[in-house]
Amino acid sequence: MDDEPRLISKIQKKGDRAAADTLIRRYYDEIYRYVRRQIADKDAAMDLTQEVFLSALRAVSRFDGKQAGFRTWLYKIATDKTVDYFRSRAVRRRRVLAADELELPDEADADFTRRIEQADLAERVTRYVNALSAETQAVFRLRSYGGHTFAEIAALLSVPESSVKSKYYRLLRALRKEFGNEWD
User: Fold this and answer.
1) Which of 30, 25, 22 is CA-nearest to residue 6?
2) To the nearest whole percent, how much of the chain has pLDDT over 70?
3) pTM for this one?
4) What is the pLDDT of residue 111?
5) If you write DSSP's letter for every residue of the chain in order, what string do you get?
6) Positive or negative CA dihedral for 96, 101, 102, 107?
7) CB 132 within 8 A of CB 167
8) Is residue 72 classed exposed, middle or buried when 0-12, 13-18 and 19+ CB atoms within 10 A define those classes?
């Protein structure tokens, strides 16, 4: 990663495609996994990941490594794109599985039922979170799906760490209240 500032500089000064390709390859899988954990549709997750990198390359001239690391900056873009995706998308309230997507389990019916219930809960939690402010969504997504620390999230969002913690724990309390026994 020592060469990261050099690669960014090459992109900023010369529009170096090889340097851009190197950075994209370095972070693509990680950013895709982050987006995919949040979006059930694999193709939509791939498209959104492409948008993240296109946006990053368009804005790389304004990237300032003193404010945040490149990886952190990519997570911020990915979070913003994910929030936008859920906001602008004509949200389907229910996802219908195609017959070839439905995998019938070899396990007992109880295990299958539990997995369906967990998927339903995840969908309802996602809808709940999608209705919140962009900043609260970003805190939740970066913490839950990105595994970032409160300090990292605070730096990404340019807000005090105490504000990030407050938003996160307030949301957890609201989720427990909203979903009761299902949440725990």
Assistant:
1) 22
2) 81
3) 0.67
4) 58
5) -TTHHHHHHHHHHH--HHHHHHHHHHHHHHHHHHHHTT-S-HHHHHHHHHHHHHHHHHHGGG--TTTS-HHHHHHHHHHHHHHHHHHHS---SSPPPPTTT----SS-HHHHHHHHHHHHHHHHHHHHHHTS-HHHHHHHHHHHTT---HHHHHHHHTS-HHHHHHHHHHHHHHHHHHHGGGT-
6) negative
7) no
8) middle
Tell whether the model's pLDDT for residue 105 goes beyond 70: no
Of 158, 154, 123, 160, the residue nearest 139 (C-alpha): 154
CA 83 vs CA 32, 78, 98, 184: distances in Å: 15, 9, 26, 25
Amino acid at position 153, single letter: I
Residue with tokens 């010369």: 14
Please name the residue that has the structure tokens 């725990």. 184
**Angle, CA of 17, 24 and 19, to the nearest 5°:** 30
From the CB of residue 112, how many other CB atoms can be counted at a distance below 10 Å? 14
Question: Residues 20-37: what's their mean pLDDT?
Answer: 93
- 41 falls in which pLDDT band (50, 70, 90)? confident
User: Which residue carries 């989720």 as its tokens?
Assistant: 175
Residue 126 vs residue 119, higher pLDDT: 126
As a whole number of angstroms, the distance between CA 136 and CA 96 comes to 28
